[in-house]
Amino acid sequence: MNTKDLLAVASEFGSPLYVYDAEKITSQYNRLTKAFKNVPQLRINYAVKALSNISILKLLNSLGSGLDTVSIQEVKLGLLAGCKPEDIIYTPNGVSLEEIEEVAALGAQINIDNLSILEQFGSKHPNIPVCIRINPHVMAGGNSNISVGHIDSKFGISIHQTPHILRIVENTGMRVNGIHMHTGSDILDIEVFLYAAEILFEAAKNFKDLDFLDFGSGFKVPYKSGDIETNVEELGEKLTKRFNEFCKSYGKELTLAFEPGKFLVSEAGYFLAKVNVVKQTTSTVFAGVDSGFNHLIRPMLYGASHQIENLSNPKGRERFYSVVGYICETDTFASNRRINEITEGDILCFKNAGAYCFTMASNYNSRFRPAEVLWYKGQAHLIRQRETLDDLVRNQIDVSIPLQQKEKVTAK
């Protein structure tokens, strides 16, 4: 999308606004499948948590993607989007056995990440095949909040607990059809990824009836011009060779699965916000926009850096601004950032807003969540309406507490 398109969409649908470019999602999906074209059986399962709008799920389903889900609600969204149950993998953490059983009844692939649930599920449902999520004890990821494969992580069953897994499998007679790992997000060093893959290969040797190995994801995308990113082409070449060798030694052609989220949708997303006020203080020039961390929490939560462009003045001279929101506490998108000169009423564009942005939005300060638009084949399609006051109060219950009358006080 270009500046003209984005300004036109902002004019039509207002701000703040999320816009997603279907062409970029498609090209990222094709790039990943091309990198692993020499794997006989490849499966891409899009991580729904990154961006769960049903129109996005339908787009990815049309490309051939399955879905990686973490809740029964995401499973049901996938089914509504037309995905087949067998093309959905469900990888929860800390949920009840009842939810897992409900998902199993829907026909999705179950992925279990703790010994207690593994034993309970295997005892009750030995005929339902399950995948097991291991924790490889590999520290990887761009932030401690998104590094999930290290020794202190709550995710997965420790690789050192493999004997416990095997005992449960033997005692229950359950079938394990997949092994899974996910070390973290924003992984740059592919050697770390390949090292963790070797741990997964070793774990897989303990199970004789596997159908697939799931290597998670966590590919880093660029956040600004010239930024470093995961070299998926190099990873594809090296991991493909190693995976095919493993399948040969295993004696069976297995499916290689990934579950990318950010890689597929991050760069496709644009968040548009209008400048309400330009405020000069003794040391800083603030550009205050009609949004806040209630709509885009990643900078405050992860320290994430989103490139910000002034669509209304793309050729203006650059000045330093701190871009802040309207939330009633510290609410900073960027500090002392070089941006083309900003005036009140300008439209700012936050790039890389496709992943973990709208899905983490809230109604904090009783603000409405923004609308979402899909740019598809040169046309803007509204795929979620902007919220209204009715949406805020829809599930609230008025218990009709009578207001007490205050006694009238008169002056003596």
Instruction: Give the N-terminus to C-terminus distance in angstroms.
Output: 72 Å
Write down the CATH topology of the largest domain: TIM Barrel
Strand residue percentage: 15-25%
Return residue spans where pLDDT drops below 50 for at least 5 consecutive residues: 140-150
CATH class bucket of the largest domain: Alpha Beta
Number of domains: 2
Structural class: alpha/beta
Net shape: globular
Radius of gyration: 24 Å
Helix content: 25-40%
CATH superfamily of the largest domain, by name, is Alanine racemase
Which oligomerization state do the chains in this entry correspond to?
Answer: single chain
GO biological process, one term: lysine biosynthetic process via diaminopimelate
Pathway: Amino-acid biosynthesis; L-lysine biosynthesis via DAP pathway; L-lysine from DL-2,6-diaminopimelate: step 1/1
InterPro entries: Ala_racemase/Decarboxylase_C, DAP_deCOOHase_LysA, De-COase2_C, De-COase2_N, De-COase2_pyr-phos_BS, Orn/DAP/Arg_de-COase, PLP-binding_barrel
Family: Belongs to the Orn/Lys/Arg decarboxylase class-II family. LysA subfamily.
Characterization of the model:
The chain is 30% helix and 23% strand. Strands 1, 11, 12, 13, 14, 15, 16, 17 and 18 form a nine-stranded mixed β-sheet that branches. Strands 2-3-4-5-6-8-9-10 form an eight-stranded parallel β-barrel, surrounded by five helices. Mean pLDDT is 92; it is low at 140-150. It is an alpha/beta fold. It has two domains: 22-262, Alanine racemase (TIM Barrel, Alpha-Beta Barrel); 269-386, Beta Barrel (Lyase, Ornithine Decarboxylase, Chain A, domain 1).
